[in-house]
Amino acid sequence: MEKLTVVTGTGVPLRRSNVDTDQIIPAVFLKRVKKTGFEDALFYAWRRDPEFVLNRPEYKQGKILVAGPDFGIGSSREHAVWALRDYGFRVVISSRFADIFYGNTAKNGVLAAIMPQESVELLWKLLEEEPGREMTVDLGARTVTCGDVTLPFEVGDYVRWRLMNGYDDIDLTLQHEDDIAAYEKMRAEKFPFKPKTIPAKHWPDVPIQSAREPEETQPWAGPIASRE
Amino acid sequence: MGTTLAEKVWADHLVRQGENGAPDLIYIDLMLMHEVTSPQAFEGLRLAGRKPRHTDLLIATEDHNTPTVDIDRPNPDKTSALQLSTLEKNCKEFGVRLHPLGDADQGIVHAFAPILGLTQPGMTIVCGDSHTSTHGAFGALAFGIGTSEVEHVMATQTLSLKPFKTMAVNIEGELPKSASAKDIILAIIAKIGTGGGQGHVIEYRGEAIRKLSMDERMTICNMSIEAGARAGMIAPDETTFEYLKGRPHAPEGEMWDKAVAYWKTLKTDDDAVFDKEVTLNAADLTPFVTWGTNPGQGVPIDGNVPVPEDIADAEQRAAAQSAIEYMGLKPGQPMKSIPVDTVFIGSCTNGRIDDLRTAAKIMKGHHKADSIHRVLVVPASSRVRLEAEREGLDKIFKDFGAEWRNAGCSMCLGMNPDKMVPGERSISTSNRNFEGRQGKGSRTHLASPAVAAATAIRGTISSPEDL
Fold first, then answer.
1. Chain A partners of B436 at a C-beta cutoff of 8 Å?
2. B12 contacts in A (CB within 8 Å)?
3. pLDDT in tens, B17-41
4. Has this prediction a pTM greater than 0.90?
5. Which homologous superfamily does the CATH classification assign to the domain defined by B5-263?
6. Do the beta carbons of residue B360 and residue B451 sit within 8 Å?
7. pLDDT band at A228 (very low <50, low <70, confident <90, very high)
8. Which CATH number fits the domain that encloses residue A104?
């Protein structure tokens, strides 16, 4: 994983709260089986709108996203972080992140920086006053600098340590393989009734009939809303 | 001081306590897998030359991408077909048990596992899907994870996690006949907001919760994530044990007695303290329905679309404004005046047998309104479909003018052929009303199966009491 220490780049103000992962990347792009190449899918629906912030030339090279509260709610899809990363974002700033999204960022070398909403508002103001403005996020110092303003942000010590060193989680865990083996021994003795998926047990197999589309009796005139 | 249910389950899975701010290492009893969030995890294992540590604690099925008609024919969507065949190939290569489309045990991950009896009290259960919280209905600690964590669990059968905070949601008193489990959870989300449970495990408690069936408890725990919570839990009791007894993977004989003795210890101590506590009076609850584009934007069905100018908080005012515009509604409009095009009954929230029985009971002897374009009834799993057919529910749905489909995620999310067109409006028993969730430009009103069925009869948003 790429190390993250200091990030300098274009700040993008996203004045929205409750940005869910369906907005960050719609489900239709989740059919891919690879882990890269999601940049075009980022904010797919919103990017159809010419007024959307990322469609303004000043913000196109965005590297630091400054968003409203409750960023990343909804689906657990890690594709949301892959899309942000592939587009070029290394940092997302918000006053509150959804838990699963937050966990996914650090696994992909992306920093989710937590700041009070007042700081977010101030950054929005600064970034909109001078669109395309660069800002600097210093993970070591836990600060964001935009023009003359330097603001602190919150990040857990452990997440910070992993990001700064680019550590892989699985490698870290496997250092404790003895502990895992010891737990498994205790588990087999204390909880012998815990289920195993193999060998498979199930009720008798029954053939499943395939449903069919009904035959169309009359063509649909389209949504009621479009008929008014 | 005593401990909460969530803390007890955590303690029983502690492999290693974190030191100096490092997270704990927690053992995972079961990981559920599906085609969407697993391919990159298998690929990661392959690239690192690793193997799953415990294939007997993994199980997979196909649900998100699968069509709900013509399942005996080739998948018309090549990308979906590739993702499904990738899962089949991976499961074969790594030795993971798979229930593919067409199998009697195939279904939405959160429906097929409880039916097999694999979801049991006191377990840790994870899946690359946020609605894993469903399994908390059994007193398991169950939560959604990302794909990197799916790979981590395959490689180590553990996760490194900071302990979750705890939150009690007490539902006191008796639930009125007109209200359902879905109305309880929609009311909770409207009260605490989409971030209200962030970082917490919610334990649902109180008289109204104890009286719910397992299917209803799963509806409530399922949508814990919509309140921002890591997980939702309900302490196991006789209802739980009765549901489990005799299921294929439930313990038997002496092991059953041993298991029940342990399960009975899984409850919050009287003197335990939660980090947060919220109380709702069940008697005040009525059918609930959403008007906006996040699950917290809901009102009682007799209420109105809000007037943004009346909302004091600037952030919420702006969110309401944009949601009302997207949804094509008028501020102050009565919810019951809204006509819908499509009715969707299904999903991991409300596609179980209790839900289908509720809908069938209301639909029986009626026909869908002429103005309704389509009514999709989609069982959450193939076993649910078989049970519904055994009870003759499929006939009631067909006589009503509804489409009786094969099991899967279907119209809950725009990943399979069951999608809406721009501007199409649904009443949906699913869990998310986000912009474009049911297809680009789709408009979703979340509600219970009873409200969805009544709406299908009348054409406008309705409660069964309006019939």
1. 22-23, 26, 45
2. 191
3. 998 889 999 999 999 999 999 999 9
4. yes
5. Aconitase, domain 3 (3.30.499.10)
6. no
7. low
8. 3.20.19.10
